[in-house]
């Protein structure tokens, strides 16, 4: 089989990224295969000795052996099934855990290179395809090849002339499946590409449902949906037709090539006394095993052609995860909280224009600084760079004398609390959302943070208070209420650096002033960076920096 080399190359890549152990499973399956090779021999004895030669004393031995084989087979099957469930579930868990941790710890540019729907499919469906690959394309394939070779050897030992004639029909299956396998691989690749594009479009469309209604573009969206599904349908039909054609041709081989040919040839051999009936029936049993192995391997070959693209998608992430730096949690290892930016140049992936150019800035520990500027001048980008969400920039960003690209992400994040424009709230209770910042936060700390953020009075009016579930991304709250909870969450984290990136843009002037005044009381020893395009936001800052489109300060 031509794909064996590719299979083991993939398997070696999987082994290098996991602690996969298949020895016991392979041994159990080999023992099970040996047990299945014995019944045809007993069948020959039953026909030739018990029935034809009337040796009834053999009958008792045959029956006892059949019962013994049944019991042995059952025990082996039970243990094999137990080990398979254990090993393959662990493999799935290990790969998904590795990939999930990798995705969580990766920089922000990772989510810009890969769509959310694509990441979700790789973590879920594609990982299961990889587990199936190990189970079928490696373990089962090895067993089928061994069974094929042993069956061939037994056929030769029974009657080499009959075996030689029978072997002439074997190449038929390989010839027929070759072209189908290539067609399936091509169509599957095209289908998967279009399907992931559709899934990503669907996810974004459903998330933007309100905008679709507001813009009155329901018909356009529905037409786009139909167009995308028609494109998917044509590739799916071609893929399915090629796959079904492969199975139909295998069935044709099974009936016409395998059964009719051997029955006819075996009958001729018995007629001319070149063999016995029992030998022919035993020969047919082993030939069926041989041919079943060939058909199974062909089926695996077709399946591999259609699924290997999914496996390579998982391997791509595993390779990225292996090259990603290990994350460990450590706190307060900076000598101070001075932030120094030197000759900073940055442009987003797939963009030729620099958002930040030759930027220089020093923010001292405990300083309250406001960064103002019009939309698009790079204020939010600067916040993301200080947070370490991107590291593909020229120049340097230092905190406490350390280049943040050389600092563990967890160390960096533990020292910075950030409230961004697009703050994310989870579909859990208010209290649980707040405790994300610190799982050890007490009730009094939570209430105090909410009072400072001017949201406590609203929360206590809710029927379930702090236990109220707020919906996906806080959809049961107003924009201002979401921002206030995000501010409270940042305060609970109690990091030495606070970054506010347009975090009060949804608040009215009075609410904004109340929060700023409270922040002024509790942040005397903290470094505070307020990013805004509204000058009213930065009344309490001791220093104001204006950033224009040329990044001039």
UniProtKB/TrEMBL annotation:
Bilayer-crossing regions: 25-46, 58-79, 260-284
Residue ranges of every copy of the ABC transporter domain listed in the record: 339-553
GO CC terms, sorted: plasma membrane
A Pfam family matched in the record: ABC_membrane
Topology class, membrane: Multi-pass membrane protein
CDD domains: ABC_6TM_exporters (cd07346)
UniProt key word Transport: yes
Subcellular localization, as worded in the UniProt entry: Cell membrane
Domain ABC transmembrane type-1, chain residue ranges per copy: 25-297
SMART domains registered for this protein in UniProt: AAA (SM00382)
PROSITE patterns the UniProt entry points to: ABC_TM1F, ABC_TRANSPORTER_1, ABC_TRANSPORTER_2
Primary localisation category: membrane
Top-rank taxon: Bacteria
Keyword Oxidoreductase: no
Keywords tagged on the record: ATP-binding, Cell membrane, Membrane, Nucleotide-binding, Transmembrane, Transmembrane helix, Transport
InterPro entries per UniProt: AAA+_ATPase, ABC1_TM_dom, ABC1_TM_sf, ABC_transporter-like_ATP-bd, ABC_transporter-like_CS, P-loop_NTPase, Type_1_exporter
Any one GO molecular function term: ABC-type transporter activity
Name of this chain's protein: ATP-binding cassette, subfamily B, MsbA
Taxonomic source organism: Clostridium collagenovorans DSM 3089
